[in-house]
Specification:
It is built from no helices and eleven strands. It has strands spanning 2-7, 10-12, 18-26, 31-39, 46-52, 57-59, 67-73, 78-84, 93-101, 106-108, 112-116. Strands 2, 4, 5, 6, 9, 10 and 11 form a seven-stranded mixed sheet that branches. Strands 1-3-8-7 form a four-stranded antiparallel sheet, with no helix packed on it.
Length: 118
Amino acid sequence: QVQLVESGGGLVQPGGSLRLSCAASGSIDAINAMAWYRQAPGKQRELVAAKTNGGITNYADSVKGRFTISRDNTQNSMYLQLQMNSLKPEDTAVYYCNAVDGLGLGYWGKGTLVTVSS
């Protein structure tokens, strides 16, 4: 089992920046890949950015050049960050942290709300 807790959401003006963080605990050695997803009101959840253990990254076209995903590993913890720059109102959503283990099982955090508005 893997537990994920997101933090860092909030209200920001258009053009501003936010940094999201996800703390992973539990069976972190089993994690193969981690990702950020988001879900805007009335829309389906979508992939924002992903990073594999091998360092391969993938971004949604809508965030390329503005968002950066990164991971930090310690002996007992794993952290996934999402640096979001040049934020737009259409980036407003609940952002979820996701982890996938070697068996293909997916784990989700409860999400953190990002609101981009003037």
